[in-house]
Every structure is written in structure tokens, then in C-alpha cells.
Amino acid sequence: MRWGLLVAMFAVVFAIAGLYLLLLRVDLSAIQQPGRTGEYLRAKLTRAVIRRRAAREEIPPVPGDRETSMSIAGGKNLFDMDCASCHGSDEKGPTPMGRGMLPRTAALDSANLQTYSDRELFSIIRDGIRFTGMPGFFGTETNEQIWDVVDYLRSLP
């Protein structure tokens, strides 16, 4: 009985010491770029979560006047007000603030972003992405306005 208790206490102390040593090696700096493996895993996990979330959520129907010049212009105006401070405007890529985030702010004209479905883009804009700096605009923008931003993103080259 005594030996079992002693072994259990030793195991707990050993586990705590190991966890402490592991945490000393973790770098939480946003300046340090992640390695290829870390970035690959983060991107795959984020994509899987977004795809699952968009599939299970009730996303409002697309407005009938979608993908018109007015919808795209309205989306650009909203983008410039809400998104350009991080993502940049005029397709020039992320701003210094957006590049300073970890993970880095997505370049909106990238091929990777254009592979997202409209439902996934809507879900990202409406609900945001936790732990990335991407806020959700649920409650501050209407569903129609969010669809306008999706239209604007689709119009980028």
C-alpha cells in the first residue's frame, strides 16, 4: 500500500515537472513564424472546422439581387470600413497590422481563399474565427451586407 502511494506521488511530481519544462520551451511570440508543419496543420484544421461549421449552420438564403454591381460596390464599402485595416484595400495584401498577426491575415485575392465556398465565406465573416484575430460581424452587419462582402471577395482578381 505504501509503495503504491509513493509511486503515484512520484508519477504526479514527474508529470508536473515534465509539463513545466515543456511550457518553458513554448514561444508565444507573434513575431516568430511557424514552421511548415505547424502552418500546414493549422491551415488544415482551420479549413476542416470552417467546412464543418458552414455545413451544420443555418445560413440565410442568398439574396435575389446577388452578384450585381450594386452588391459588389456595397460589399467593397463595407470591406473598406470593417476589413481593410487588417486585410488591406485595393488588393495590395495585408496591412502591417495584419502581417503582424499570427496566424497572418489572409491575402484575399489568394487562390487558397477563392477555394472556399460562398457558404464558408459567409460563415467566416458572420462568426469569425477564434484564436486568429478574425472577428465575427454577427449583430453589426445584416445578412444581406455580409452577402455583399462575399460578392466583393468573389470579384477580386
Structure description:
The longest helix is centred in the N-terminal third of the chain and has 24 residues. The termini are far apart. The protein has 157 residues and is mostly helical. The model has no long low-confidence stretch (mean pLDDT 86). 15% of the residues are buried. It has 8 helices and no strands.
Compact overview of the structure:
The chain has 157 residues and is mainly α. The protein is 60% helix and 0% strand.
Give me the secondary-structure category.
Answer: mainly alpha
Low-pLDDT runs of 5+ residues are: none
Helix content: 55-70%
Shape: elongated
Main sheet?
none
Report the total helices: 8
Layout of helices and strands:
Layout: H1 2-25, H2 36-56, H3 69-82, H4 84-87, H5 96-99, H6 111-114, H7 118-127, H8 143-155
Features:
8 helices; elongated; mainly alpha
